[in-house]
Amino acid sequence: MTENPAIPVRDKPQPIPASGWIAPLIVLAYVIAAAGVWLGFWADGWGDITGDMWAAPSSDHWLGTNRLGQDILSRAVAATATAFEIGLLVAVASSVMGGLLGAVAGHYNGSRLDELILWLKGTIDAIPFYLFVVAIAFALQGHAMAMHLAMIVAFWTTTARIVRAETMRIGQTGFIQAARAGGSTPARIIVRHVLPNLVHVLLVQATLVFVAAIKAEVVLSFLGIGVQDSISWGLMLAEAGQDIMAGQYMNFMVASLALFGLVMAGSLLADHMQDRLDPRSRHRRTTSLTRRQHQP
Amino acid sequence: MRLRIELLRFILRKLTAALPLLFGVTLVSFTLTVHFGPDPVHALSGKNPTTADLAALRRELGQDQPFWIRYAGYLRRLATLDLGHTETTGEKVRDLVARTVPVSALLLGPGFVLGTGLALLLAMFAAWHRGSRLDRLITGASVAGMSLSFVIIIIALQAVFGVWLGWFPVRGWEVTGPASYLAHVTIPTLAFVLASIGYNTRFFRAMLVNAMNAGHVRTARAYGAGPVCIMFRHVLRGCLLPIVTRVVYSVPALVISGSLLIESHFSIPGIGRVTYHAMLSGDQPVIMAVVGLSAVVFAVTATVADLLCRLADPRIRLA
């Protein structure tokens, strides 16, 4: 029997594919690299000049040195910690903000409060992200946390949209109506009944925001309005843009591979989490990766 | 006749609904770039100004007015395109924008069209052969493409075509005719297509696969319609709304980041490089104009695209 593409095909339940194990393991390796930096085990000398300009890989400098003679491996590992700091901060803060505002909007859907939250979301979505960062950096006169603040304010909207829709769906179900009939306050219903049922949505979305924040950091640091007084893959790539004109590719290869690996593993992890954690995912129209995300 | 009146009322209502959005984006851009922006009074006053001098200058600039009056003044200046002069060269911001936006449009237009078009074709191909090895290859490659940062793509293209092969100029914008235009636009176009094709293909494929499940598509196939006819006439029409919305909403993320990155890195005199320099030097009139105008233009575009989609789709009631 030939398969007819125009006839709906029911997805069969599938075992976890190989990539389902690889992605979490890769992310774990990055976590260990970052944790080692925080605990001071390695890479604390990323700013020290320890070798010659553009030295080739050797036992002292496994991946060579940059223009100033700094160790590229140390810099890439230290940048992993920077990426995690930004990614985790933005993911947690925007998930809390998006989760609460989305749940409130969904619970009171159609009310003035819902309209206000939707208006805020629409406004922020309509301002181009990079110009928003520029404007916030401008208003805060170049404060080091301007980028973080801008990302949190810009990235909660997708989470809020999804949480709002899910809250409205859950609100129709019996147990929420029972809780309401039993006299629970709206705050209690949201915190005790709605949000715990949306943990899987928030987890997947937080992972996607984590990835988006790291990608955005690279672009902003490359442009010179991102990370200050530290090291990041974006700053390494900014150096690399100069290095390649001199025929030196090490900085570029290391920084882009490190970035690509974490972003790819993070995206795949989010996708698998969506499949595994959401009981209804097989009937979903879209997977997590097809959602409209900020695309740096 | 009655239908036409209903249509008109529908359009009017849609445009009215866009007003709060316009209010929002202008309010945010005013608050961030003008209200909290650096105080120009000290830069404008002469040496050793007295308090009275400063107060007089503030009054002259209208800074002693309450917030809402100043906001209204900002709106009036945006609407009349009276945007002041740049702080670096003293050129009128309006002229600067008018001079640089066409360069950016020429630079990024081909990449935007090609990136969207190629992604749509790839997605149709993958959706038609859903579940096959080719489909898995396309889907896998698009996830990899999504993970490539725009920055990586730009540096890699610069290394390959600019440094190794030397086929295309990677710096500047000396366009005198079609040949030099093609030479200069190739690398930005490649960069743009590579940066956008992953996201687009994956999203389009998901939408197409969903639309292919509709009954009328099966009927068309049973009658023997070919793949091209089915895909364009029956499937694509079934999922036009999310696709158009997606393409429109990818403009601020992709086009603006693209013009900032490509133009600043390759020294191309478009609006992106102007913004980049203004942002590094803190040139308030330019930042105010770029943030304000782009937010307004985008809010209007999104509303019009939404309107067109609904008009194209007869299932959506006008009332």
Description:
The complex is a heterodimer of chains A (about 300) and B (about 325). Chain A is an all-alpha fold. Chain A has one domain (about 70-295): Orthogonal Bundle (MetI-like fold), CATH 1.10.3720.10. Chain A is about 65% helix and about 0% strand. Chain A contains ten helices and no strands. In chain A, helix 2 (about 70-105) packs across helix 8 (about 200-225). Chain B has about 325 residues and is mainly alpha-helical. Chain B folds into two domains: about 1-60, no CATH class; about 95-310, Orthogonal Bundle (MetI-like fold). Chain B is about 80% helix and about 0% strand. Chain B is built from 14 helices and no strands. In chain B, helix 6 crosses helix 9 and helix 12 (about 240-265) packs antiparallel against helix 14. The model of chain B has no long low-confidence stretch (mean pLDDT about 85). The chains are: A mainly alpha (about 300), B mainly alpha (about 325). Chains A and B meet through helix 3, helix 4, helix 8, helix 9 and helix 10 of A and helix 2, helix 7, helix 8, helix 9 and helix 10 of B.
What summary fits the major beta sheet of chain B?
none
The helix-and-strand class of chain A reads: mainly alpha
Distance from first to last alpha carbon of chain A:
45 Å
Radius of gyration of chain A: 22 Å
CATH architecture of the largest domain in chain B: Orthogonal Bundle
Radius of gyration of chain B in whole Å, from Cα? Answer: 24 Å
Give the strand tally of chain B: 0
- Give the low-pLDDT segments of chain A: 292-296
Number of strands of chain A: 0
Our estimate of the beta-strand percent of chain B is under 5%
Tag the structure with descriptive keywords:
heterodimer; A: 296 residues; mainly alpha; MetI-like fold; 10 helices; B: 319 residues; 14 helices
